[in-house]
Amino acid sequence: MLKILYFASLRETLGLGAESLDLPPGVADVGGLLNLLIARGGGWAKLGAVKNLRYAVNQEMARPESPLKAGDEVAFFPPVTGG
What we know:
By secondary structure, this protein is of the alpha+beta class. It has two helices and five strands, in the order E-H-E-H-E-E-E. The protein has helices at residues 9-14, 30-38; strands spanning 2-6, 18-21, 54-57, 60-61, 73-77. A five-stranded mixed beta sheet has the order 2-1-5-3-4. A hairpin with a 2-residue loop joins strand 3 (54-57) and strand 4 (60-61). The N and C termini lie far apart (38 Å).
């Protein structure tokens, strides 16, 4: 089971801040998980359109090729800008 967290505008777009998901067979990394989520369609497809989307696995910054295992916490968040 993965715990997936969504922050900022992603939370608003998807209408949820977190979900649990069994680690699907064939999904071995963050990029694979992202592709699986995008394939849901609707608001999920917008995940693929976020420029500079950031990822974290177990509260450590990650890359698309970062491996996943059952029990991991994965967070997706858009880049933050400020002034």
